[in-house]
TrEMBL record:
GO cellular component term, pick one: peroxisome
Keyword Cell membrane: no
Protein name per the record: Amine oxidase domain-containing protein
Pfam families linked to this entry: Amino_oxidase
Cofactor: FAD
GO molecular function: polyamine oxidase activity
Length: 490
């Protein structure tokens, strides 16, 4: 009896902080900050585990860097649009399958180099002349050989360097790998595509860490109907507060208190911070007490890249029946590429996808100027192109809710930053693609990190209450069912 009274007293003391109005709480409580994929996954998992969950989101919509737009009359993704790893090993596959959402496989290659198969490219020079497909394939093979040589450079040098610097060393050692003329321009295009994968320029990408992520089998698949149905399904029934921008997070021994922009406060036993790394780096959120030095250094040492989409809707299709159109040039900055959504969706839409410094420069333009810039790139290769009837432009680098697209490894910084960012600080837990060392920069990485943070949080909170049940799953049984993925190909 004495032990029961003591545990009840501890339970009441632990929960009294978690209710702003001072009423008795009946179950553990958590505040999740950020309604992107990671935050919604975490909130859904804790909701299944019978926690009281409040999800705070600064935008007027959910999804974060998943943003499916319907203003054209059909879905197009301004943010994430691929499932990287079209297989049952992908943690998102069961949910996508159950929803009956079709995927269009753009590549069967489990590689960061080719999210499209080589035969699906149509490359052109600045004068509008198409590059022979044989040359495209030959340079593609050469590009892979160059990257293998950079691995030798990595093994020999103890200090890190950029991918671009490693390329220079390779060309000094292997003159036979140097290219000239049109072939050199095609090589720059391949490097430009690599920069697009990391949303960063080659002179900032770490040689030591660029290929350390885990690639799931099955290749790459485009979400034909967009990612929003996945987000909406996970968010169903959750207590989500939109237009709630967090400005302060206070942690104490028995709870956390979160303050939003209008002064409203929320209190709970713990909090999961599922914010984009760019927002954490900006310092717009005050932590009290401040985060430990090791956590702050992890946030500071990460790179945040920018890749945007300029989506052009035309009244008819006038371009080749391929998945990818590209412009080759002397530098990666001048190169460009367009994703052809007509292959996957039947819509007359091209998506221009600038990355790195080019993306940052275009963000300084108005939407109209940005759309016109993208159209001018298209006119270089297709002079008879008709003007778009509609356009959409993303701003992931300047949007105060993201301040970047996704993370990448900076030169000279350790790869364990992902793990250091993930590790909890007292009753603050962290989620998001930047906390996933295996799957950074991906939707399934964000999703997995949300589930992991939810489980860590559940264990920690219930352990304090003496109610820990090691056999209680975070997700419901329906998360385990298996339905085949709906995959098409050209």
């Amino acid at each position: 009896m004495e032990n029961t009274d003591r545990s009840n007293h501890q339970l009441r003391r632990g929960l009294c902080y978690s209710n702003v109005e001072g009423k008795k709480a009946r179950s553990p409580s958590v505040i999740v900050i950020g309604a992107g994929m990671a935050g919604i996954a975490a909130a859904r998992a804790l909701h299944y585990a019978s926690f009281r969950v409040v999800l705070l989101e600064s935008r007027d919509r959910i999804g974060g860097r998943v943003h499916t737009d319907y203003s054209f009359g059909f879905p197009v993704d301004l943010g994430a649009s691929w499932l990287h790893g079209v297989s049952k090993e992908n943690p998102l596959a069961p949910l996508i399958s159950r929803l009956g959402l079709p995927l269009y496989r753009t590549s069967g290659d489990n590689s960061v180099l080719y999210d499209h198969d080589l035969e699906s490219y149509a490359l052109f020079d600045m004068d509008g002349n198409q590059v022979p497909q044989e040359l495209v394939a030959k340079v593609g093979e050469l590009f892979e050989s160059i990257l293998k040589e950079t691995d030798k450079v990595r093994q020999e040098y103890s200090e890190d360097m950029s991918i671009r610097c490693a390329f220079s060393i390779v060309f000094e050692r292997r003159p036979d790998l140097r290219l000239e003329g049109l072939a050199q321009k095609v090589l720059q295009w391949y490097l430009c595509r690599m920069e697009g994968w990391f949303a960063a320029d080659a002179d900032t990408i770490s040689l030591k860490c660029w290929d350390q992520e885990e690639l799931l089998p099955g290749g790459h698949g485009l979400m034909v109907r967009g990612y929003l149905p996945v987000i909406n399904t996970l968010a169903k029934g959750l207590d989500i507060r939109l237009n709630h921008r967090v400005i302060k997070i206070v942690r104490r021994l028995h709870g956390v208190k979160v303050t939003v922009e209008d002064g409203t406060t929320f209190a709970a036993d713990a909090a999961i911070i599922a914010l984009p790394l760019g927002v954490l780096k900006s310092g717009t959120i005050k932590f009290e007490p401040k985060l430990p030095d090791w956590k702050e250094s992890a946030i500071d040492d990460f790179g945040v890249g920018v890749e945007n989409k300029i989506i052009l809707h035309f009244d008819k299709v006038f371009w080749p029946n391929v998945e990818f159109l590209g412009v080759v040039a002397d530098t990666t900055y001048e190169c460009s590429y367009f994703l052809n959504l007509h292959k996957a969706t039947g819509r007359s839409v091209l998506v221009y996808m600038p990355a790195g410094q080019l993306a940052r420069d275009i963000e300084k333009m108005s939407d109209e100027a940005a759309a016109n810039f993208a159209f001018m790139q298209l006119k270089k290769i297709l002079p008879e192109a008709s003007a778009p009837i509609q356009y959409l432009v993303s701003h992931w680098g300047t949007d105060i809710n993201t301040l970047g697209s996704y993370t990448f490894d900076l030169v000279g910084k350790p790869h364990d930053l992902y793990e250091r960012l993930r590790i909890p600080v007292d009753n603050l837990f962290f989620a998001g693609e930047a906390t996933s060392s295996d799957y950074p920069g991906s939707v399934h990485g964000a999703y997995s990190s949300g589930l992991m943070a939810a489980e860590d949080c559940r264990m920690r909170v219930l352990e304090r209450y003496g109610e820990l049940d090691l056999f209680q799953p975070v997700m419901g049984e329906e998360g385990l069912s298996s339905v085949p993925l709906l995959i098409s190909r050209m």
